[in-house]
Structure of DUF547 domain-containing protein:
Amino acid sequence: MNKTFSLRFAVLLWLLGSWLASPAQAADAMSPQALHAPWDELLHKYVTPDGMVDYQGLLDEEDKLLDYLMAVRKTAPNEQTWAPADIQAFWINVYNASTVYMVLQYYPVSSVNDIRMKGRSYSPWEFAGVTVGGQDYSLNQIEREKLSARFHDPRIHFALVQGASSGPRLLNEAYNGAHLQQQLEQQTRSFINDPARNMLGSQQASISSLFSFYAAEFGEQAQVLEFLNRYARVPLAAATPISYLPFSWNLNDRHTQAEIQALRK
């Protein structure tokens, strides 16, 4: 047998063994901060301060994003050694990175609603295409089971990014357990006071449809107004009527629609 081939085959077996290491071993071998460092680097480089994504630029480093997701594939949060905030940050990062990677597989695309998985038989939110610690999840499963059901924190809905221009802005840094509370507060306050997403006035509140999508968590009008008043720069009266703004699923791309269309030709 050719010696060069033998060496390459040995290296391949070693790499395969590394990828098949148990989730617990992988989680113990790397701190949460170190795990998310590659994702953090990509966010700093390709996401603008106002949360728009340079998908075209990211395509040039798609392999780095894939490497990060492959690291996640063999990592499950260690319930014994990870703080709850680290676990919460982990799942937010996985959700957002998986969403961005999904968009890259179909880019250039004008809207995330144009994406259909497996020959249009699955929506991108229901397709079980995210693997963590050997377990397959859909994006909706991560949102519902790993975040909402466990942490009961509605602020996560301003951190999870659907790739839509009316949705929350993608934070240009990875979520970090040590700073998670500040990051969630920042994202929530920024979203609520953004006039492109919520129009808050003393006589009328026209708010994001996100509050309607997750009505079970935000509650009735009185509870929604109470939540808004925790963050709104202009206080809302208890009797302020609420309406919901149309939700645009156009891609949160820093490039214009005309530029995206030109890429598709």
Summary: The longest strand covers residues 130-132.
